[in-house]
Amino acid sequence: MAQSDSNAEKEPKLILRGVTKLADDSFDTTVLLYQGKGDYLQGFVKVDGVKHQVLAFMNERKPDPSTGEIKPNFITLSEPSKSGADDDSKWNQIGHGNAVNRRGDGKEVHFDEVLFNVGGTIVKARETKHVDESLHQKLGFLEPRKERESPAATPTDEMPAAGPVSNATAPVSPTIKRVRA
């Protein structure tokens, strides 16, 4: 038992996950980013059916010298270079991501969503339960995460459970035959 517990601790923690609903009502995973060994995430993003193995670097912004304002952190996505060159340019930046801290449509912000722009395509991901407060801030969120409401109950959820089956016969009301003239 101790062996499986130690393996669970060594498993990388899933930090960001994104899915999209397909036309046949199934789901396709579009983002899986795990905690790396350093100050980065690793995994893949899937755009237009193409899976890109990436490292996601969390970039901290410096204060604006004139105003002192510090904008939220952002994430850059880089994939291995396909050139095969043995130089310092082994990684190519393919996109970037930003934490959703406000919405233009006035809907509630839960401070758990990251939008990635990869080649002009927007890919959405959400934080998982493995994100602590420090990592939450590094991802670029300005406020603590807000819990989402559970989805509304469907009619099948509200139906009473079937009771025990009984072998007793149901009472039958007497049948009256009427004769019409």
Give the neighbour order of strands across the main sheet: 1-2-3-4-5-6-7-8
End-to-end separation in angstroms reads 84 Å
Classify the helix fraction into a percent range: 10-25%
Count the domains.
1
Shape: globular
Following the backbone from N to C, one meets helices and strands in this order, namely: HEEEEEEEEHH
Mean pLDDT: 83
Count the beta strands. 8
Q: Determine the structural class based on helices, strands and strand pairing.
A: mainly beta
Q: Residue ranges: pLDDT <50 for 5 or more in a row?
A: 154-173
Instruction: Work out the radius of gyration.
Output: 27 Å
Question: Strand percentage, roughly?
Answer: 35-45%
Main pleated sheet: 8 strands, antiparallel, barrel
* Number of helical segments with 4 or more residues: 3
Concise summary:
Residues 63-104, 136-181 are annotated as: Disordered. The chain has 181 residues and is mainly beta. It has helices at residues 2-10, 133-138, 155-158; strands at 14-21, 27-35, 40-47, 50-59, 74-80, 91-99, 113-118, 121-127.
Please provide a written account of the structure.
Residues 63-104, 136-181 are annotated as: Disordered. By secondary structure, the chain is mainly beta. It has one domain (2-146). 10% of the residues lie in helices and 35% in strands. It has helices spanning 2-10, 133-138, 155-158, and strands at residues 14-21, 27-35, 40-47, 50-59, 74-80, 91-99, 113-118, 121-127. The chain is globular and about 100 Å long. The chain starts with a helix and ends in a 23-residue tail after the last helix.
